[in-house]
Specification:
By secondary structure, the chain is mainly α. Helix content is 72%, strand content 3%. It has a three-stranded antiparallel β-sheet with strand order 1-2-3.
Length: 445
């Protein structure tokens, strides 16, 4: 047994383990700095009544889970990937009849004092199932069928999350398309995706009639530039006209329908605020309650980002010091222990502390990619890229929203933000990768 345990410890990538531990400890320190209220520090950590004590407990539980994962046979994850995905979908479906509404989201199931957010936990199962599918011998990303199946695995939990008013976590699932691209998804798919995003943004920024005229002008100019080719291949003309019709249809019908019937008013307001515009309020088609909610959310979003910028900017180069920040210590920054936890680092430790934290995340991401590229197993490589994609998306969006670069969509900073489900999810994600890497000499299809 001792020899076996020694062999397991030799295969573990301790760089990943130490990076995980450092970021998690910095997270607890940040939560402590944001929520400490002059109580005795020792009793505060032991009471399990403070946020930092509960986060410490979650970290200890995570360490126990990590130990069990490291002692698990790697084949377990390939054998149960599809079953775990099915279990995750069941959990998401159970949210609808048993959910508890918390701060605008309906994605949480509560058991007494314990809360579970299946949309967060399901990222693990999606990553495993996608890696399993991409590693199958008969999966060929040059075929439309394979592309649709892989996209379906990702989009199903994303759609269920949107239906639970959890748009932020739903967007995280789209990071898995980076894994597909690494495994051979045609570049045209990403080009189409970015083009659709650009069209949606243009729909929000420009007058509908003006945008329709611009799209028509682009189509006409394209036809004139390709007139010689069009004489030989009429199919190109059909393609140009079809793309024009689809773009106009999306601009005229799809975007207005999605923004009015699918998204909540506060979600629409966040998107409009990101592109620098106010949500157009129409008293003739909207109720007074909806208008009031939009105006309240508009003020709240603007206030949150403004206070976040003040907190980060006031930290200067070296920061004010631990427990010496005014914006975060006196609750000027809303959700400073969760979505805006980065403000605590920015104010307390300034540019220097923020840069060091960013370097820790960059080190973690580059190490994961390095680990991914040394895998002999397609399953392990795909899973590793999935972990990197999810962490990158969370870090980019969370830090971006604290400085006003992206919408305030409410996703946690990995291993930093307060929340048991999020911390345990990232712990499990990372340590499954460490376990797979420890057995990289085995070929796991």
């Amino acid at each position: 047994m001792n020899g076996k345990n020694l062999e397991i410890s030799r295969g573990i990538d301790w760089v990943l383990v130490w990076l995980y531990g450092l970021i998690a400890v910095v997270g607890i320190m940040s939560i402590f700095a944001a929520t400490y209220h002059n109580e005795d520090v020792v009793s505060g950590f032991l009471s399990m009544k403070t946020d930092y004590s509960r986060q410490t407990l979650f970290l200890l539980i995570g360490i126990v889970l990590a130990t069990f994962i490291l002692l698990t046979d790697s084949k377990f994850f390939t054998a149960t990937a599809n079953l775990l995905y099915f279990f995750g979908i069941i959990l998401l479906l159970l949210v609808f009849p048993f959910h508890t509404r918390v701060k605008g989201t309906e994605s949480i199931i509560r058991f007494g004092n314990f809360q579970l957010q299946p949309a967060e936990l399901c990222k693990i199962f999606v990553n495993l199932a996608l890696a399993k599918y991409l590693s199958q011998v008969d999966t060929d990303f040059k075929k439309l069928r394979s592309q649709l199946i892989a996209a379906g695995l990702v989009l199903l939990p994303a759609i269920l999350s949107i239906m639970q008013s959890e748009t932020g976590l739903a967007l995280v699932y789209f990071s898995f398309f980076l894994v597909m691209y690494r495994e051979g998804l045609p570049s045209i798919v990403l080009v189409v995706g970015f083009s659709l995003a650009a069209l949606v943004i243009a729909t929000l920024l420009l007058d509908p009639n003006l945008l329709a005229i611009l799209l028509t002008a682009i189509a006409i100019i394209t036809i004139l530039l390709l007139r010689r080719q069009l004489k030989r291949k009429k199919e190109i003309l059909v393609l140009i006209i079809s793309i024009w019709a689809i773009c106009v249809g999306i601009q005229r019908f799809a975007v207005p329908f999605f923004f009015s019937k699918v998204l909540k008013p506060y979600q629409v307001q966040r998107i409009y605020a990101t592109v620098g515009r106010d949500f157009p309020v129409d008293p003739t088609t909207m109720s007074e309650e909806d208008i009031r909610k939009i105006e309240d959310k508009k003020r709240a979003t603007s206030y949150n980002v403004k206070q976040s910028k003040i907190a980060i900017g006031s930290g200067g180069f070296s920061g004010k010091g631990l427990l010496k920040g005014t914006q975060t210590r006196y609750d000027f920054v809303p959700e400073q222990r969760t979505d805006f936890i980065f403000c605590t680092i920015g104010e307390g430790f300034g540019f220097l502390g923020s840069a060091l934290l960013l370097l820790l995340y960059l080190g973690l991401l580059f190490r994961i990619i390095w680990v991914a590229e040394r895998q002999r197993s397609t399953f392990s490589r795909c899973y590793a890229y999935g972990v990197a994609s999810v962490i990158f998306f969370h870090v980019f969006i969370n830090m971006g929203m604290t400085v006003g670069l992206v919408p305030v969509i409410g996703i946690p900073l990995p291993l930093m933000s307060y929340g048991g489900t999020a911390l345990l999810t990232f712990t499990i994600l990372l340590f499954i990768l460490i376990r797979l890497d420890a057995d990289r000499q085995m070929v796991l299809r």
